[in-house]
Amino acid sequence: MEIASDGPKNLELVALQLAKGQQQAEGAATLQLLESAAQSGPTQSSTPGASIGSIINTSV
């Protein structure tokens, strides 16, 4: 009886281990994506907004 009842438990354990491994792989891929996006992102100028919005057309 114990052998038969251990079967589903073992399958559940294997499924949980596979799910954990998948989550870890996805987490690592997400971190790698975020790090690469941070490295290749646009650089900020020393005076942000100096050229953006400096001319405002107020005529209607």
Task: Give a written overview of the molecule.
This protein is mainly alpha-helical and 60 residues long. Helices cover 65% and strands 0% of the residues. The protein is built from 1 helix and no strands. The longest helix is centred in the middle third of the chain and has 39 residues, at 2-40. The protein is rod-shaped, with a radius of gyration of 27 Å. 0% of the residues are buried. The mean pLDDT is 80.
Largest sheet data: none
- Topology pattern, helix = H, strand = E: H
Please report the total strand number as a whole number.
0
Q: Between the first and last Cα atoms, what is the distance in angstroms?
A: 86 Å
**Count the helices. How many?**
1
Structural class: mainly alpha
Indicate the mean pLDDT. 80
Radius of gyration: 27 Å
Secondary structure elements and pairings:
Layout: H1 2-40
What's a quick, concise take on this entry?
Helices cover 65% and strands 0% of the residues. The chain has 60 residues and is mostly helical.
